[in-house]
From TrEMBL, chain A:
It is found in: Nucleus. Keywords: Nucleus, Repeat, WD repeat. One of its GO terms (cellular component) is nuclear pore outer ring. It comes from Erythroxylum novogranatense. InterPro entries: WD40/YVTN_repeat-like_dom_sf (IPR015943), WD40_repeat_dom_sf (IPR036322), WD40_rpt (IPR001680). Its main location: nucleus. It comes from the Eukaryota. This is Uncharacterized protein. The lineage of its organism: Eukaryota, Viridiplantae, Streptophyta, Embryophyta, Tracheophyta.
TrEMBL record, chain B:
Transmembrane segments: none annotated. Functions as a component of the nuclear pore complex (NPC). GO terms for cellular component: nuclear membrane; nuclear pore outer ring. This is Nuclear pore complex protein Nup85. It comes from Erythroxylum novogranatense. Keywords: Membrane, mRNA transport, Nuclear pore complex, Nucleus, Protein transport, Translocation, Transport. GO terms for molecular function: structural constituent of nuclear pore. Component of the nuclear pore complex (NPC).
Length: 355, 722
């Protein structure tokens, strides 16, 4: 395993499971010694999916705290400080209260569930929550964009949803991310990104055309991230190892951070396969200088060819993990950004702790 | 044999009638798989067929004339039953081994290729600093780690005085078999110390030799559990039996530890039993001083180790002389405790190699075999001698049903590669065979020739390839392991790539993640034709399920112009209905997807241009500027000239641009352009006579108003140009 760029290699723990991991997210923890994660499992032997909360203390194995059985496999999982949202491949969205104060409950039951032909047909590919906001945006294969309102905090239980857009299957969305309480970005086929404003419903307010790599094969956006402090810059990752940033202010010019076919800028891309997830990395290395607001934040991504790395505009990429199998998802612990949890294709979880 | 019985979750307590097929619980080797079908009896029909991998598909049908249809119960159910292995390891554990063995296997294969490359270039072997068997050893160690941990679970700071057996993770027979093959085939350094390596092997895996019959290990476990209850340990005959057994198989630390539990060590008794205690201690010292011919002794283990044969022989003779001397000592007469006297002298007989005593102290033939190496023939060399010795031990301790490890050992000692492979396959499955072949061919050229030779009876492939293909098939049959099958298939020169293409073509395309993972494998192995094919299938699948956008995307990726043209026609029907209004919003996304170049869009290029026309017409409507008008005319002309524009859109297009044609300020189309449009109109009039013509949904006077506008424009344009 080659680890470059860091003076001290990160500490890595691998926890083998006996189930496939569809997604994994950190949960806010009560104390620094007690960490919690929420994991979407799929047991192939019995053909049952499950959503589980575990306490984590590597290298010791995960300790299950609570479990809920979703109607089908989890396709997307997002968390905030107090709420978690999960979507399934059969087209439902479930909202959970995961706040610190609720950890003692043994059952993990959704406080609000939306399902039905009117809502989504087919797989819901992406959901997103915003800190302090009680709306969950969901996008799917059917081209629908829905807003699930699960009430103001404190009065969970009642909820509703409304349709923002219905693409009638002419488009399919694969990822979504809130930019502000009223704006969000969706991504889909052909490396396209759409900027939406719920105050101006019915149409995307901004389109990013994915045809900047003329003549090259096109691809799919798998993941989008927007840092709350830079809501005009959208980070996206997708096919052929592509990670790019789209600045709303300079509309049609993406800033490519990694990927094939970017010729001059990137001679040797870190990955040439699917980038499954991308997140802004706020972990500041002790050596690096302050980040100016004009620069794109460093981006962490994981890929099908088993790479977990940090890329930064005009800097050498830093490889954190190189696995023989795919890394399907990862999450940076917001409370302690040096810790990253990854789900690996070969039924295991890796925890990377940066020095 | 398979017997199927059904089980009703919380159903009737007496479920005698629940069994579909009567089965006899006493029948040996029958496995019962409970079926949770949840159907109410009676079940009229059961059909069993093979499903994917080693699972059975069982279809249960209720009788058709069921009167209970009212409560909405289903008429039957299809279940899959996975036929498990021997139950020693769960499926998840096997998958973990399969995942973990990929890297060592791939590394060894790439090293093999580079070594082959070196020898082709006729470079001297000194260029690579390691001998081949050392690479194989590295591989073997990696796999061994994967198969389980045989080290004690917890490091004890203070040893429990009463604990004679260390607390270990239960060893697996797969690991035992792997280590056995490593000892004999891969580890060149162990050749000189084979007997002692086997002693160590037995110490780790004795518990696996038999699950039903007694072994030294099971005897010790039993004794350990009674130990706490025993008051005067030396009065128990089992104590002496266990001591003799442990000594016979060379577990010296346990023997010494047990001896020190002897009652004569107690402070209150030592004065009375001085001689007895002296004898016990003398035996303990002799045991702990036993000479062993091995390179090293691990910390905490007893015995004195010698590396060279002459030194060992000297020490061995001296040690035996001491044992004999003690045996003929006069102190025995003064030892009043009968059991102690008998037990200790029995142990001395073991140390002197008394075959009868050894026979009664051991249970399994392998234990007897090991005791031979320790006390009778410590210098046994050569597989032939070892084989003969094994046969002798087998005669002394015959077993009715030989265990899989014992069969494997006999195969190895018999130097029969085919038997070894067969035993691996029978006892441990395809994973073991395909990975153990690397060990078998590490050194022995003969085995190498046998395994690499292409055989007519196997369809011109070698045994090695055959076993890899079998293993790859097993991997392919599971949703989680199919992705690692390509690694093994790629190492099969003859049939690997063909099977790989079949595997990739067969993967489901419904799930886009699996589809992308599949395409990634195609990319790694340069299988462009396969990936194109998969993308076509995915495109058509999504199209058919109403996801037009993803359908178009995948067909574009596959460069499938023919399919795109066909679906374009279907799309136009849809467009014809919805697009003529102002609501073009839904189409935006799809049109964006087609891109500005629309190289691979086929007939869908039209959509893109139509959108452009609509946009410029809107511009024109708002501003009425010459520039906007000219832009609109340009896109109208390019649409009308383009052969991909369907005929039935001609009239709607012209009708939409009516304002453009009859703009008062100036004629926007020149003479030739107008003529072209008029020609198109003429062509359209002819086409209307054909029976299959589809009339556009326009007001009846549309054609005439367009014709009029064009004629007016023509007149004005002629005047203008003059």
């Amino acid at each position: 395993m080659a680890i470059t760029g860091l003076p001290k290699p990160p500490e890595i723990h691998r926890l083998t499971q006996s189930k496939y991991i569809d997604s994994v997210r950190w949960l806010p923890s009560v104390s620094p010694f007690q960490k919690h994660v929420i994991v979407a499992f799929f047991d192939v032997d019995t053909d049952t999916p499950s959503l589980e909360i575990h306490s984590l203390d590597p290298p010791k194995p995960l300790v299950p705290l609570s479990l809920w059985t979703p109607p089908s496999r989890i396709s997307s999982l997002k968390t905030t400080r107090s709420v978690a949202a999960a979507s399934t491949i059969s087209g439902s969205v479930h909202i959970f209260v995961t706040g610190v104060e609720r950890h003692d409950i043994s059952g993990l039951e959704p406080v609000f569930t939306v399902v039905g032909k009117e809502f989504h047909m087919g797989s819901v590919n992406g959901v997103d929550l915003m800190e302090g906001n009680s709306e969950c945006v969901s996008v799917g294969d059917d081209g629908r964009v829905n807003l699930v309102n699960f009430g103001v905090e404190g009065s969970f239980g009642k909820g509703s949803y409304r349709k923002v857009f219905d693409g009638n299957g002419l488009v399919s969305y694969t990822a979504v991310k809130w930019a502000s309480p009223s704006e969000f970005v969706t991504g889909g086929y052909g490396f396209g990104l759409q900027w939406w404003d719920i105050r101006r419903p019915g149409e995307a307010v901004g389109q990013f055309k994915g045809n900047w790599n003329h003549g090259k094969t096109s691809g799919i956006i798998h993941s989008i991230d927007i840092h709350p402090s830079r809501k005009h810059t959208c980070l996206a990752g997708g096919s052929t190892g592509t990670v790019f940033a789209w600045d709303l202010r300079s509309q049609q010019q993406p800033i490519i951070l990694s990927g094939v076919g970017t010729g001059e800028t990137m001679t040797h891309p870190l990955s040439e396969s699917e980038v499954w997830e991308v997140q802004c990395d706020c972990y500041i290395k002790s050596s690096s200088r302050g980040l100016s607001s004009s620069r794109i934040l460093p981006a962490m991504f994981c890929s099908e060819d088993g790479i977990l790395a940090v890329v930064e505009q005009g800097e050498e990429p830093t490889e954190l993990l190189a696995e023989p199998c795919a890394i399907n998802s990862f999450d940076i612990d917001l409370q302690n950004p040096s810790d990253i949890i990854c789900s690996l294709e070969w039924e295991s979880i890796a925890i990377v702790s940066r020095p | 044999m398979l017997a199927v019985s059904s089980e009703f979750g919380g159903g009737t307590s007496d479920s005698v009638s629940g069994a579909l097929v009567p089965f006899l619980p006493c029948a040996e080797a029958s496995v019962v798989y409970p079926l949770h079908h949840g159907l109410k009896p009676p079940i009229s029909r059961v059909s069993i067929s093979w499903a994917r991998g080693s699972s059975l598909r069982i279809s249960l049908f209720k009788s058709s004339s069921s009167e209970s249809d009212a409560d909405g119960e289903v008429g039957g159910k299809v279940l899959e039953v996975r036929l498990g292995g021997d139950g020693e390891m769960s499926d998840a554990q096997w998958r973990r081994i399969a995942y973990g063995s990929v890297s060592p296997f791939a590394l060894l294969q790439s090293r093999k290729n580079s070594v082959a490359g070196f020898s082709k270039m006729q470079l001297s072997p000194s260029l690579y600093h390691l001998e081949w068997w050392e690479y194989v050893m590295e591989y073997s160690k990696d796999i061994d780690v994967l198969l389980g941990n045989s080290k004690p679970l917890t490091a004890r700071v203070i040893g429990d005085q009463q604990e004679i057996l260390k607390n270990r993770e239960a060893p697996t027979s797969v690991k035992a078999a792997w280590e056995l093959m490593e000892i004999f085939y891969a580890d060149k350094l162990s050749k000189a110390w084979l007997p002692e390596r086997l002693v160590d092997w037995l110490a780790d895996y004795d518990s696996l030799l038999s699950s039903t019959q007694t072994t030294v290990h099971s005897k010790l476990v039993e004794f350990q559990s009674q130990l706490i209850k025993l008051q005067i340990i030396e009065d128990e005959s089992t104590y002496w039996e266990v001591l003799a057994s442990a000594l016979a198989v060379g577990w010296l630390e346990i023997v010494v530890k047990l001896l020190r539990l002897h009652g004569s060590y107690h402070l209150d008794q030592i004065a009375k039993r001085e001689i007895e205690n002296g004898l016990v201690e003398a035996v303990a010292v002799l045991v702990s001083k036993m000479p062993r011919m091995r390179p090293e002794i691990e910390a905490g283990e007893l015995g004195e180790c010698f590396k060279a044969k002459p030194d060992f022989m000297k020490a061995w003779e001296r040690w035996r002389a001491q044992v004999t001397k003690l045996d003929s000592s006069a102190f025995w007469v003064q030892c009043t405790h009968r059991l102690t006297r008998g037990g200790l002298r029995n142990m001395l007989q073991i140390m002197l190699g008394n075959l009868n005593v050894l026979c009664s102290a051991t249970y399994h033939w392998i234990e007897l075999y090991i005791s031979h190496f320790l006390y009778i023939r410590p210098l046994t060399r050569g597989l032939e001698n070892m084989y003969n010795l094994a046969q002798k031990c087998l005669q002394l301790k015959p077993t009715s049903c030989p265990d899989k490890l014992a069969r494997l050992l006999i195969g190895i000692l018999g130097e029969n590669t085919e038997v070894v492979l067969a035993e691996c396959s029978r006892g441990f499955g395809p994973w073991m065979v395909s990975h153990a072949i690397e060990l078998l061919t590490a050194e022995s050229n003969q085995a190498g020739i046998l395994l690499h030779e292409e055989r007519h009876s196997l369809g011109e492939i070698s045994m090695e390839e055959l076993h890899r293909l079998i293993y790859a098939q097993v991997l392919s049959s599971h949703v989680l392991t199919w992705q690692i099958a390509p690694i093994y298939l790629a190492s099969c020169i003859k049939q690997g790539m063909g099977l790989l293409e079949i595997l990739l073509n067969r993967q489901p395309i419904q799930d886009s993640k699996i589809l992308l993972k599949n395409l990634e494998i195609c990319r790694l192995y340069d299988l462009d034709s396969v990936s194109t094919n998969i993308m076509k299938i995915a495109g058509v699948y999504h199209w058919k399920h109403g996801r037009k956008g993803s359908g178009v995307f995948w067909l574009q990726q596959a460069h499938d112009e023919r399919c795109l043209n066909r679906i374009a026609q279907q799309l136009f029907d849809y467009v014809g209905k919805s697009i003529s209004g102002e609501c073009f919003l839904q189409w935006e996304g799809l049109i964006e997807l087609l891109g500005s170049e629309s190289k691979h869009a086929g007939g869908l290029e039209f959509l893109h241009k139509y959108r452009d026309l609509k946009k410029s017409l809107q511009h024109f409507d708002h501003g009425k500027t010459v520039i906007a008008a000219q832009e609109a005319v340009e896109s109208l002309m390019s649409l009308m000239k383009n052969p991909s524009t369907p005929q039935r859109f001609w009239l709607p297009l012209l009708y939409d641009s009516l304002k453009l044609l009859s703009w008062r300020e100036q004629p926007l189309l020149n003479v030739s352009q107008t003529n072209l449009l008029l020609n198109k109109l003429q062509e359209l009039s002819m086409a209307r006579l054909r029976p299959d013509f589809v009339e556009a949904d326009l007001p009846p006077q549309a054609l005439n108003s367009v014709r009029l506008a064009l004629a007016t424009n023509l007149g004005r344009a002629i005047l203008e140009e003059k």
